[in-house]
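ok new one. same drill as before - structure tokens go in, u give me an amino acid for every spot. 270 of them this time. try not to just spam alanines like last time pls lmao
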């Protein structure tokens, strides 16, 4: 199982652009397999725009995979979004993993005057259009004419709940499935992964796993949600359990952005 990381800067008042960029570089230098970005709009706590952040990550890394978990596609116009994603994919040298979903926070949609009620239909319509643009097709009068190195665009991974109708869609039409481990217990993760594999699905990623290696913690049961708020020994056991379930990737959320701490987190699952 590969181990990815998402950076969460808690002390926002002291974060500067160069601090954030340095953290992106640390993700690669401390040995993580992938670097991930979340997507929120106007919730009262700033996060860099995920596509902009992926482009920045592409510029300061050379090998690590770069992804979104997940990008709320219905908040944007699909042609404009396809152009931005293709640009980041090109800048990364083809390292992007585009985790997408319909979104579940109504305030994000209200902030940009998007249609929350029809978000799933918007997602279903947008993804084929974006893929067509990345192949060089004309969509809604637009043709992005991709350069050969970015032709086809990035793999698309569908983010959904374990019981969602999107799991067979992810398996049969797209390139992977993303589950939120923080909001799904072990039993549901097992069930969702079994459904996904049963539909012939490939890459499966468990994201949004918070880390606090100074906290106390006891072994988790199947009814518990996954976190790494526990001593390092127990954190390693929890990640091993996720690997035993059959996930291909785990993505942890790290809020202490130092080389020592990030190396310690990376060492939990060599």
């Amino acid at each position: 199982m590969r181990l990815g990381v998402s950076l969460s800067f808690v002390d926002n008042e002291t974060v500067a652009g160069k601090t954030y960029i340095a953290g992106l570089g640390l993700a690669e230098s401390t040995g993580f397999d992938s670097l991930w970005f979340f997507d929120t709009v106007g919730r009262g706590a700033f996060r860099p725009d995920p596509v902009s952040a992926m482009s920045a990550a592409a510029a300061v890394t050379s090998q690590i995979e770069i992804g979104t978990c997940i990008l709320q596609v219905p908040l944007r116009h699909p042609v404009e979004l396809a152009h931005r994603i293709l640009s980041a994919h090109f800048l990364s040298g083809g390292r992007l993993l585009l985790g997408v979903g319909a979104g579940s926070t109504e305030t994000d949609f209200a902030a940009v005057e998007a249609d929350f009620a029809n978000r799933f239909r918007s997602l279903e319509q947008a993804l084929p259009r974006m893929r067509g643009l990345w192949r060089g097709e004309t969509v809604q009068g637009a043709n992005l004419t991709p350069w050969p190195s970015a032709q086809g665009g990035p793999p698309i991974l569908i983010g959904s709940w374990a019981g969602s109708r999107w799991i067979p869609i992810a398996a049969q039409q797209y390139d992977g499935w993303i589950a939120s481990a923080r909001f799904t217990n072990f039993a549901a993760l097992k069930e969702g992964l079994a459904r996904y594999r049963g539909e012939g699905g490939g890459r499966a990623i468990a994201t949004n796993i918070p880390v606090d290696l100074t906290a106390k913690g006891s072994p988790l049961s199947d009814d518990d949600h996954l976190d790494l708020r526990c001593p390092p020994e127990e954190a390693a056991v929890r990640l091993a359990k996720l690997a035993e379930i059959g996930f291909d990737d785990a993505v942890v959320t790290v809020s202490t952005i130092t080389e020592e701490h990030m190396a310690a987190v990376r060492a939990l699952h060599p």
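The chain has a mean pLDDT of 95. and btw The domain at 9-154 is CATH 3.20.20.30 (TIM Barrel).
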